[in-house]
Amino acid sequence: MKWISVKDRLPEKSGYYLITYSFDNHRFYKAAWFNQNYKFATTANDIITHWMPLPEPPESTASEVK
To answer: What is the dihedral of CA 4, 32, 39, 51, to 10 degrees?
Structure first.
């Protein structure tokens, strides 16, 4: 997967995405909810620069989950 600039496009559907953003001259990464009406749900001071879909979770069997 590659990072997609918010200047190029935003996600086509609502859901969680991995984003990178800057705050106070530092770079951070986190999962954030995206909604077509409200955009990414973050604090007002976050400057989101890129996003990508979250990867699929690892497959596990019932015996691995405890």
So the answer is: 0
Residue 16: give the domain boundaries.
Answer: 4-56
Q: Model confidence over 3-13: pLDDT tens digits?
A: 999 999 999 99
Per-residue pLDDT tens digits for 19-66 = 998 878 888 888 888 987 778 877 666 788 899 999 888 887 666 655
Give a yes or no: residue 62 inside a domain: no
Q: Does residue 64 form part of some domain?
A: no
Compute the distance between CA of residue 36 and CA of residue 15 in angstroms, rounded to an integer: 9
